[in-house]
Prior knowledge:
Rossmann fold; 42% helix; 5-stranded parallel β-sheet
Amino acid sequence: MKKASAAKYGTKLFVVSAPSGCGKTTLCNKLLGDGLGLANSISITTRKPRPFENSNSDYRFVTRGRFLGMAKRGEFLEYEENFGNLYGTPKKFVEKNLAGRVPVLLSIDVKGAMKVRRAYPKDSVLIFILPPSIRTLKTRLHLRKSDGPEEVKRRLALAKKEIAYKDRYDYRIVNDRLDDAYRTLKKIVLKELETTDAE
């Protein structure tokens, strides 16, 4: 992958990662709706939409063949496979917004976040959302009822691997109470945007 630098753009690329069930999507949606001027990078995926998800607002849902074609043409900033499904970040969208000095929000997994950090080492801001405990995370996964028992086990095993990356992030937020976690997240984003404006 050809590396890019956002230094000439003078803006920020916010990357939020979390294990499934930690409230990442809810927190990111609150951030996007808070008038901070963030561009929402919608990931492209080959998985099937869940009942409450909408195409082009939660994810862009495509066939595996189309996804692989996009990857071959270099249309992703990063992409990964999880649970047999492919997920990718559209490169053109990110580059267009950074070129226009618009900060971008990415909600992606830890491996994708590491790739973004390598591509934009000075301008990416990595934020990791943690559960209060693995036990609490297990309860949350069961309560949302979108996965069966075996799927929950797989997600918990993956969560432990993802949490091992937390110290490679710039910020870590424990989502025990959603409102408190969001206040912390917003403060981080505002601080980073103010830093950009001052440069």
